[in-house]
Specification:
By secondary structure, this protein is mainly beta. The chain has one helix spanning about 10-30; strands at about 35-40, 45-55, 55-60, 65-70, 75-80, 85, 95, 95-100, 105-110, 115-120, 125, 135-150, 155-165, 170-185, 185-200, 205-215, 220-240, 240-255, 260-280, 285-295, 300-310, 315-330, 335-345. A hairpin with a 4-residue loop joins strand 1 (about 35-40) and strand 2 (about 45-55).
Length: about 350
Amino acid sequence: MPAFLPTRADCLPMTVSRSLLCLALSAISTPSLADTVWLKNGDKLTGSIELVDGGKLLLKTDYAGSITLEVEKIATLESERELLVKQDDFTGERAKSLKPAGEGQVELVNGEAPKVVALNSIAQILPPKPLVQDLRWSGNIDFSADYKQAESDVKDYDIDLATQARHGAWRHSFGVEYDHELKDDEKKTDRTELDYDLDRFLTKQFFWQGQLKYTHDRMEDLRIQRTVGTGPGYQFWDDALGAFSVAGLLNRNDFVFDNGESEHFNSAAMEWDYKRKLIGQNVELYTQGELGAPFIDEIDYIIDTEAGVRYKLNSWAALSLKAEWDKVASENGDTDERRYMIGLGVGW
């Protein structure tokens, strides 16, 4: 054999290397498994099913971002991913995959006998979480700052965290806000607000709410507000495009003023929470707040509300613009604060 020709032993490493290279290239070029949605009008869409809830399906695609589809217009579905399928708000099963079935139906494959169910009987479809399988967690962190240099130098910043978690019949809402303002290096605003709501859904719309609120204002006449409340609520809708709920609460309030005096009283309150996504879910309008009527003559009414708009800059960042109004009308002195802020936020 000529010396310049490679032997079989020399060719073996080259063959193995080429095989590994081809395998790697094929793995890179092979597209990941996609979910498929067939519509009743004959159209077929591919992407990743992120959520089915409230009669709507949220499909994430590479070609058009996230698309919201009406479930009643869907013929059937297919997915090779493991998904949690719930036919009511309390129980669900993990399907190993979804297979297409007759119009308005889907087949659940879970290792046992496949089961065909009607799409309109499904309350939720979502990827299962490691610990709490049906956990849905969302939230925003907004940071606003303002610096004005004129006759008076004003520095103002605000940090606002709002998050919500839903699993089964329970919903947890938690919020923290801190507002700080300096005017000519003199502190004008220094306030912290905490609130926590726990909702237990009795039906798909009706729920019972428990509420805890705490506000500490180091500059105003009214220094500390503590509220514990409970009452019924109603969820008008909660889906991929937004949510709207109201609640009627009976509250126990404790007010502490800067002169050392305090007020302890009961009150009735109406609470609302509204969110709506527009323009391909790139814009979100929201308002939330509480209007309270105390059962004593010393305090006339209590208002705590905010409204705003968020514009998505990318998948996680947003530009936020909001207005807040907090007012307590009291014989010991009124507090009336209105703030307008613009800033950046992170959402999930």
